Amino acid sequence: MTCSNLTENIVFLNHKSFVDGIYSSYQFHDSALESAALRSELFHVVVPYDAKSTRDETEGAPKAKKLKRAAASFDEITLKVKDKHDEYVSFNKNVETLTEDNNKIALEFIYEFNRNAHYNVDKVFNGGNDSQFIVKTTMHDEDYIIPPNCRFFNSDVRNLNNFLTHEDKFDFIVLDPPWWNKYIRRVKAVNEKSGYRMLDNESLKGIPLENHVHDRTIVAIWCTNSPSHIDAIEQQLCAKWNLKLVGSWYWIKITKHGSPVCAFNETNKKQPYERLFIAVTTDSSIKDIPSEKYIFSVPCAIHSNKPPLLVTILNNLLCFITELFTDFFPERPKCLELFARNVYPNFTSIGTEVLKLQNTRLFQLSSKHEVQ
Ligand SMILES: C[S@@+](CC[C@H](N)C(=O)[O-])C[C@H]1O[C@@H](n2cnc3c(N)ncnc32)[C@H](O)[C@@H]1O
């Protein structure tokens, strides 16, 4: 099951099944390879991260603080999301029965990945796959899998004009900006390979997104719960990009048992949810985009990794993670992802770590004769 609508605005999605669906829909160019699936360890999130944990995802990362459970005063949005979580729990009867009481399997797997995998964010390169086969390739001593029909640019998005022309217009654009954030700064200070570089709001504003939209483009912007980041989208970025906000959606991260991955908190503290703003152009002909959605999923344990929002597989078959955009796009939408760490079919992906999570270390590959 990749995605199910539990109520009109509550959706459960299965990140792993969705990505695995891509790789089971196409054949490998290398005929000895049969299939690829995301490693199940990545989703082995069985208890909240603020429960007593073994080791954080990143060596030397700020330790999970002990919970002080004073009566928290939640803001309006947190209360709403918390209520939706209660509603979700009342629907969700299919929780997996697991015996583990910690996230060790996921955390140790990621610790090893960060320790062993090499990725040079300063290397500028680009590539793509215009075939209908999955390609396994080696670059800078690491192996990657590249899905069909995609192109990617490992580069700073501030150089967007170097690889996109004004004729490059997209039906769907997703951005997950590296919002300036104290936590990432601390993680990166301790372990260079775990955090990532950040951008200030002025630099984000400099991205010429307005050149790549048309009157039926949908833009999805991931945002933290920081009031200054929310404000930047609402007050500055949308105006600069000729967009208007039509939806505030929420991604609620839950354990395999359905609990939030950390406690709901007061404003300005860590929350188990993030926001996904949905915008269209100011002259958009698109109507009826749901203004609110609550998307529940078990997050990949890699820090800040988001579930894919739109996946197209095979020639004309569209498959949407939440089936939320189905009515709005052409049969084979042209998609753009900025600040990407993955690549997907029908996407142009740009970021300084654009292939990082396509590393085969994160996949279970099976050949015709054996599992690798
Ligand atoms: C929040 S993460 C994106 C996570 C991604 N959406 C995922 O699901 O895994 C932001 C990414 O942008 C990259 N980045 C930082 N500054 C950048 C820049 N100026 N241009 C392009 N990418 C940048 C970071 O290295 C990081 O990979």
From TrEMBL:
TM stretches of this protein: none
InterPro entries, sorted: DNA_methylase_N6_adenine_CS, MT-A70-like, SAM-dependent_MTases_sf
Gene Ontology BP annotations: methylation
A GO-annotated cellular component: nucleus
Pfam families membership: MT-A70 (PF05063)
Gene Ontology MF, one: methyltransferase activity
Domain of life: Eukaryota
Family (UniProt): Belongs to the MT-A70-like family.
UniProt-recorded name of the protein: Uncharacterized protein
Organism: Aedes aegypti
Gene field: 5568631
